[in-house]
Amino acid sequence: MQDTDTIVAVATPPGEGGVGIVRLSGPTAQAVAACALRSPAGAALAAAWPARTVRVGLLVDPGADGEVIDEVIFVYFAAPRSYTTEDVIEIHCHGSPAVLRRAVSLLVGLGARLAEPGEFTRRAFEAGRLDLNQAEAVADLIRARSDAARRLAVTQLRGGLATVLAASRQALASARARIEAAIDFPDEDLDLLDPHRLIADLTQLREGLAELLENGIRARVLKEGLTVVLAGRPNVGKSALLNALLGKDRAIVDATPGTTRDFLAEEVLWHGSPFTLVDTAGLRADAGEVERLGMERARAKLAEADVVLFVLEATAGWTPEDRAIFAELSDGDGGGSGGGGAGDTNGHSRSLVLVWNKIDLLDTGWRPTRLGEATETAAPGPFAASGVPALWLSATRGDALDELRALLRERLRERAFGAEAHEVLALTIRHEQALQSCCCELDRAVSNLGAKQPVELAALDLQRASRFLGELAGETTSDAVLAEIFNTFCVGK
Ligand SMILES: Nc1nc2c(ncn2[C@@H]2O[C@H](COP(=O)(O)OP(=O)(O)OP(=O)(O)O)[C@@H](O)[C@H]2O)c(=O)[nH]1
Ligand SMILES: [Mg+2]
Q1: Tens-place pLDDT, residues 284-336
Q2: Protein residues placing their CB within 5 Å of the ion ligand 2
Q3: How many structural domains is the chain composed of?
Q4: Distance 301 CA to ligand 2 centre (A)
Q5: Residue 149's domain spans which residues?
Q6: 244 and 381 within one domain
Q7: 153 in a structural domain
Q8: Is there an atom of ligand 1 within 6 Å of 233 CB?
Q9: Which of 254, 256, 301 for a ligand 1 pocket mutation test, highest count of atoms within 8 Å of Cβ?
Q10: Which CATH number is 343's domain given?
Q11: What's the 3-state SS for the chain?
Q12: 348 C-alpha to center of ligand 1: Å?
């Protein structure tokens, strides 16, 4: 990738649209565009282009006797006041795949190069117009599916993390300066370095970062949504429930046990909140080879679940097979606690919901009303008074589906608790790792100072902490990380 090239790409999504935008960026953008743009009357353009002015004209192919490709409008953003900080020309064509394809190949023929994914944003980053967090926020904003995700991306794009970190970086720099001074003037160290104050300052700094981390993890739930996995014996109606919740015939439903083999994931938005619903193969002991492979996949999905819907048959009651599955689900991470996962900081305690399906087949007219009321009577054996919510519903008749959706939205809110506030930033895994490492270094420094170790040790700890904060602010980043981030972009951004 050579940054002196002039690059070109279609900036709008593929397909038909009212307008399709071709974007050129680089030192020769104006010269390249001038070869292909004419006034509405077909005259060549004057040498001096007014910047930031919308102009009407024709896009022509000089190599094909000036064939008119489209009537267009175009805008020139003169360096450095453009998205990439280079000369940028945007040509607004009609949103036709044929026009856009021809326009790009024409501009490539005239000397531009096809842009790589994310190359426009990468140039903006390399020129210092955006920091790395803002560049990532651009990709997040483009991908945002819910209003919450959009809001988080815009906060980040407007410099969120860098602003939040400024005070922490300042505090760390001051602590380092005090330690360095104590190292340089060892005889006076007691006066220069008040270890108690330093420990208090570092502890406060660490608490602030830990809070940022916790809120960031919650905000990620708002952005990425909750993963809800349906699990249970074969034939209890998992696939029927998935279809009912989605409101469409997505999974095959059949009276033969073992119908679903592979897992099936589908995203939905309920009241603007994203959920990923995952249907899985029924779990049973005497399964054939293919079914067993399906069960392995089901178990892998269960490990990723935020919420497990344990589907049971109201007509069959609590069977020994259900008991075995329950033992498996509650093995390990908090599956049996039924708590909403509030207060969880590693982002992965799953919560369990019992779903008694097929109540339309019960001949009594009985039907539990509220969740809480249902819990005690509905939760058998190990669930009695355990706080695991239980719902009685019918996937095929549609009873209580709204209650189930409401319960799942409630779970999402619990996970994201506090993340609605404006100052919250959604952290990426990269941010989380850097923050965690920074907190570790601060802990080490505090314990070294507390144990009256030579101050040089704490100085080294703080030096590393400061490097992690720099990484977090998007200043020091390896080429591999950069490549990974920009490769997730679409071409034209
Ligand atoms: N009466 C009634 N039948 C249902 C209900 N839900 C599912 N069924 C029926 O139960 C049978 C099994 O449904 P599926 O959704 O395929 O069950 P599953 O749990 O996905 O089964 P596997 O994929 O084999 O693990 C089908 O014949 C469904 O029509 C319900 O609420 N009421
Ligand atoms: Mg199924």
Answers
A1: 988 888 999 999 999 999 988 989 999 999 888 888 899 889 888 876 544 33
A2: 238-239, 259-260
A3: 3
A4: 15
A5: 143-220+424-474
A6: yes
A7: yes
A8: no
A9: 254
A10: 3.40.50.300
A11: CCCCCCEEEECCCCCCEEEEEEEEECCCHHHHHHHHEECCCCCECCCCCCCCCCEEEEEEEHHHCCEEEEEEEEEEECCCCCCCCCCEEEEEEEECHHHHHHHHHHHHHCCCEECCCCHHHHHHHHCCCCCHHHHHHHHHHHHCCCHHHHHHHHHHHCCHHHHHHHHHHHHHHHHHHHHHHHHHCHHHHHHHCCHHHHHHHHHHHHHHHHHHHHHHHHHHHHHHCEEEEEEECCCCCHHHHHHHHHCCCCCCCCCCCCCCCCCEEEEEEECCEEEEEEECCCCCCCCCHHHHHHHHHHHHHHHHCCEEEEEEECCCCCCHHHHHHHHHHHCCCCCCCCCCCCCCCCCCCCEEEEEEECHHHCCCCCCCCCHHHHHHHHCCHHHCCCCCCEEECECCCCECHHHHHHHHHHHHHHHCCCCCCCCCCCCCHHHHHHHHHHHHHHHHHHHHHHCCCCHHHHHHHHHHHHHHHHHHCCCCCCHHHHHHHHHCCCCCC
A12: 30
